[in-house]
Amino acid sequence: MGKRRGGRELLRSLSKKQKKHLREFGEEHPFYDKVSGRPEATQICELSEDSDKSSAESDSETEVEQVSGYHKLLATLKTSPESESEEEEDESESEEAEESEAEMDSEGSQEIGEAEGGEGDKKDVTEEEEATDTAEQMLSQEQADGTDTSCDPRHGVIEEFTDVKHESEFSLETNFMEEESGDCNADRKDSSSSQALPEDPFKQHMDKELEEKEIEKMSTLPKTSSQSQWPRLGQVIFSSTLEKQKSLKADKEVDVKQLHLHKPLESTWPKVNKQFLSAVDKAIDSSFTPLQRELFCVMNSYRDLFYPERNALTNGEEVRHAYCLHALNHVLKANAQVLSNNARRRDRKPGTDTDDHRDQGLTRPKVLMIVPFRECALRIVHILISLLEVSDKKKIDVSNKKRFKGEFGSDPEEKPPNLKRPEDYEAVFAGNIDDHFRIGVAILQKSMRLYAPFYSSDIIIASPLGIRTVIGAEGEKKRDFDFLSSIEILIIDQADIYLMQNWEHVLHLMKHINLLPLDSHGVDFSRVRMLNLNNWSKYYRQTLLFSALQDPQINSVFNKHCFNYTGQVAVRNVPLTGSISHVVVQLPHVFRRLEADSVTSVIDARFQFFIDKVLPEYRDAIMSHTLIYVPSYFDYVRLRNYFKKEDLNFTPICEYSKKAAVCRARRFFLKGEKQFLLFTERFHFYKRYTIKGIRNLIFYELPTYSHFYSEICNMLKATDNGVDATWTCTVLYSKYDAQKLAAVVGIDRTAQMLQSKKNVHLFVTGEND
After folding, report:
1. Are 694 and 585 in contact (CB under 8 A)?
2. Which residue from 184, 509, 590, 636 could staple onto 630, CB 3.0 to 4.6 Å apart?
3. Within a domain: residue 135?
4. What Pfam families is this protein classified in (predicted)?
């Protein structure tokens, strides 16, 4: 036990570079060896003349090998001077850090050696040798178990884990199509069956060669749009810049064989998706729900899609299964094409160069999935695994699966008991809700590799914050976004949640996707598609955007950052009733309209309108217990500073408030010690506390989620003091809040309120109004 303890203590004391050297060479670096005081005898050897010749010959050979055709091709790449200088600075900084650490280690070893004396040196040497042996055993055991010591805080620096051990097994360049899989003759099957079935949408989309005139047309001319009514999606708007596309029609019945799914997916999809099928769907032998059928019809046509009715409580899992099927189908087809071309290149006659095997991008990642929480990534990976497993007996090989479950899974005991929250809250915040993560997934035939390095991954699953920390900001030394250069499918799921996190991360991602890489990353340029070499990747990228609501910021991303040449499809249904019909207390609602010249000026106009016309009416002590609901944190800070300046009796609660401050503010507000309560929307989104003691409500701006309006209004019934007649609710709105207003009061009332410039008074009696 003493030897093993000594080995563990030695392993913990080693730096990262010392551990790496110990793992590779089985011994510590000579720099850290203890130097004895006795001088060693030097031995002088005379070299013959032949040795000089041999060394000169070897030098010349290496010089010839360095200049090859591949290196000439790489020399044509433009390397950024910033990256070179950054590498030099990183090397110099690491060298300085090593020197300082070495000096501290040497000083410490000298002090210990002087204190213990000469006889202890021999014991130290023997104990150190035994400790290094046990350290080697521990390192080899950890490698065998698939663990990484860099992620353990006991071993010093915490670094992100990436699977390097399975690199060769999942390399597209060195693998070939297995004959057992039955896909080696996929191209022949497609060509033979092309007479009966239409062309594969994947090949039709990726093989189309655009001309410069078409690219110029898409970047200059506006889009033409058309509308149609679908049975399940409702009002669907098609828009495109190129020639008028044939309008899609929602198929009532879909045969799986006609969807051009990759071979294993035809058999696994009905089994995986049967949990969502109703009795009617099973009766007609359909493997899709009505919603999935229409969504996949758009996805499989490789058009951009915006679906703003994705609800975590009702249809969230249906949507997730549909886009996972489409993404996996795309990856399997792309990889099968590369592997089959590898076999053709291997079997071709030497000296025959062909340009027909352009089947790759500048980097390997093809699909990028943006999801808000780790639980979402966990469910996606489980769906991908289940879609690849043909039967229960034939399980696919998934590397690092145990580690993935440990980092992305959740412990049921961590959830605090007896917390009453709405059902939609429980659905959104289920499982592991960490929002800082990223993981690469490589898929090759019958196996899956989790934690693959980004440049060896087919699918990247990340949160906006997780991908932002990799992309970095301008001026940072360590930043990388080359892996986004050849993304062919971008999936942004639950986009409404990012409005509650940080929408700037999404905008930052859209600015750095499909840009030319700064480095080659070992790509074979003879296999790269011309669309990638021409920097036209963004015109081929399909963007799938799912949200629970329609918001101007989400609409802006879909309209300004989606350039797919096949066009865009957006679902635009208008709400008929609105969430005001779910208010169960008798409450007069006063909607006060403010005027603004532009979208940018509405922020200042709202603030001025509030302090000049609304706030003076609530300064009287009679209008106590007033809650002011503020959706924007910037507006909240502005109001808080103004209230402090005017010395008003108020207490604030925001998403950054500590638990003690929240409890104190709620108690003061309930007892009437504070007249005003500033309340942010993001706090309500993440906590959903019931605020007691409200008598007067002011919506500084309409809420982002329409059901928050009825939730806040229904908080008035939490305190029953018999003062129902004094309850009031005031809402500020402008003509730029049309979407939010329609979600609250319905489309008919919205049209009337926007036409009239007068204040609107509504009285809800507790029934559907």
Report:
1. no
2. 636
3. no
4. Utp25_C, UTP25_NTPase-like
Whether residue 690 contacts residue 642, with contact meaning beta carbons closer than 8 Å, is answered with no
**What local confidence, expressed as pLDDT, does residue 197 receive?**
54
Nearest to 543 by CA among 485, 489, 584, 462: 489
Q: What is the pLDDT of residue 95?
A: 43
- 682 versus 175: the higher-pLDDT residue is 682
Give 754's contacts (C-beta < 8 A, 6+ positions apart): 735, 738, 741
Please write the tens of the pLDDT for every residue from 558-592. Answer: 999 999 999 999 999 998 889 999 999 988 999 99
pLDDT tens per residue, range 461-492:
999 999 999 999 988 888 999 999 999 999 99
- Same structural domain, 647 and 624: yes
Sheet holding 438-444, edge to edge: 224-230, 234-240, 568-571, 304-307, 542-546, 489-492, 367-370, 459-462, 438-444, 447-450, 397-399
Q: Which tokens hold the place of 666? A: 């709620």
Q: Is residue 223 part of a domain?
A: yes
Question: What's the longest Cα–Cα distance across the chain?
Answer: 109
On whether both 378 and 296 belong to a single domain, the answer is yes
Confidence of residue 319 (pLDDT cuts 50, 70, 90): very high
Domain total of the chain: 2
Please state whether beta strands 438-444 and 447-450 pair in parallel, antiparallel, or not at all (unpaired). Answer: antiparallel
Residue found under tokens 């860099």: 150
Question: Tell me, what's the pLDDT at 62?
Answer: 40
- The predicted model scores a pTM of 0.78
Q: What is the CATH number of the domain that holds 683?
A: 3.40.50.300
Long-range contacts, 34-42 (Cβ 8 Å, 24+): 34/109, 34/113, 34/121, 34/124, 34/125, 34/128, 36/121
**Integer Cα distance of 220 and 241 in angstroms:** 9
pLDDT tens, 241-255?
886 656 667 666 666
- In the chain, % of residues over pLDDT 90: 54
- Is there a domain that residue 134 lies in? no
pLDDT of 369 strictly over 50:
yes
Which of the four pLDDT bands, split at 50, 70 and 90, describes residue 158?
very low
User: Which three-class secondary structure string do you get for 340-362?
Assistant: HHHHHHHHCCCCCCCCCCCCECC
Rounded distance between C-alpha atoms, residue 137 and residue 70, angstroms: 41
Residues 321 and 231 in one domain: yes
Hey, what are 580's tokens?
């005001």
Q: What is the DSSP string of 643-659?
A: HHHTT--EEEE-TT--H
The predicted model gives 400-412 an average pLDDT of 91
pLDDT at 428: 95
Q: Left (φ > 0), alpha (ψ -120 to 50) or beta: where does 439 sit?
A: beta
Cβ contact 494:315 at 8 Å: no
* Rg of the chain in Å (alpha carbons): 32
pLDDT top residue among 392 and 687: 687
The CA dihedral of 255, 257, 259, 265, to the nearest 10 degrees, is 110
Q: Are residues 581 and 505 in the same domain?
A: no
Would you state the structure tokens that stand for residue 346, as one six-digit string? 């291997």
What is d(CA 566, CA 204) in angstroms, rounded to the nearest whole number?
A: 11
* Structural domain harbouring 273: 201-240+258-344+359-413+422-571
One domain for residues 557 and 592: no
Residues 593 and 642 in one domain: yes
Query: Quick one: 550 and 613 in the same domain?
Result: no
Can you give the pLDDT at residue 125? 39
Residues 538 and 304: their CA atoms lie apart, in Å, by: 12
